[in-house]
């Protein structure tokens, strides 16, 4: 039950015109996005890191950083991340990779008054660009200092790392999160809450969630990723429960969430570079790239947001959408009865433990019955 809006659009000349839209929700419930917009011309390429926010019904777009490479083969990489401070100031992380002289730079930008400050975090010359899996993710810790998650390959591709770049007020410290041999990490999302770091990432063909408790990382398998090609994703916390989104070049955009001790999933749509945010009311908001025309070309940034919760009946099964908001439901009441009229379940609907039979679901809002479903 999702709603869709277009934030920005453009005409494709070659390759993707947009990359990596990232969404955040401020304390007033307004969406903010950051993304890369690339315009390739006959003789050069213009690449822009852009930031937008919704003001009423209109999206306001600002340019943070821009590049005019000498060759179309010099590209700003495709992964941008955004977080907001409590007072709504945007903080952004992204990679700049120069494929002509094989240099790489991790950059951090934040809004200071009416201008943007751009700081280099880590630079290296003469690197193989494939060794940098270019996703980044940024959060602010309790001191409101930035912490950035990124990944790294060794030059001979036999070791992969997940790193945290932590700012302490004076400089950056690089800490190792996970190290593995003969594999590849793609970081999806990083969150910091209750003095714990939470990470969503891909290793090989599976999506994993990890949380740091004291000095140890606890890792959980969430879902096998469908589709071929590069994968992208994001992480959020719904209260204390993790949830996320991910997609790949040939796989669907999938929303996942942890229900009790089990990870659940819902396919939403097609789209690349999905990003997830939760507003102060518990509603989910997603940004991604999507196609208009020609088919298969990602030339629009799409904004998806959660609609009114409802119960649906399909193939003799009762489903609650959006399922992940069930534990925060406060506008509707759900009751499930057996044929004798006995109350079986209320509010938190879980059909896995119910015996086969006939049941009645009664959905009420403000004590008024608005829907009755037999299943």
Outline the structure in words.
It is a single chain. The chain is globular. It has strands spanning 2-9, 18-25, 31-40, 45-55, 58-67, 80-84, 90-98, 103-112, 115-124, 136-140, 146-153, 159-167, 172-181, 185-193, 196-203, 206-213, 216-224, 231-238, 241-248, 253-259, 262-269, 272-278, 284-290, 300-306, 310-314, 317-321, 333-338, 343-346, 359-365, 368-374. Mean pLDDT is 76; it is low at 70-77, 293-297, 313-318 and 320-331. With 375 residues, the protein is mainly β. It contains no helices and 30 strands. The strands form eight sheets. Strands 1-24-23-22 form a four-stranded antiparallel β-sheet, with no helix packed on it.
Helical run tally: 0
User: In terms of per-residue confidence, which ranges show pLDDT below 50 for 5 or more consecutive residues?
Assistant: 70-77, 293-297, 313-318, 320-331
Beta-strand level of the residues, as a percent range? over 45%
The strand count comes to: 30
Computed Rg: 22 Å
N- to C-terminal separation?
A: 20 Å
SSE series: EEEEEEEEEEEEEEEEEEEEEEEEEEEEEE
Secondary structure class reads mainly beta
Largest sheet: 4 strands, antiparallel
List keywords for this structure.
single chain, 375 residues, mainly beta, four-stranded antiparallel sheet, 0% helix, 62% strand, globular
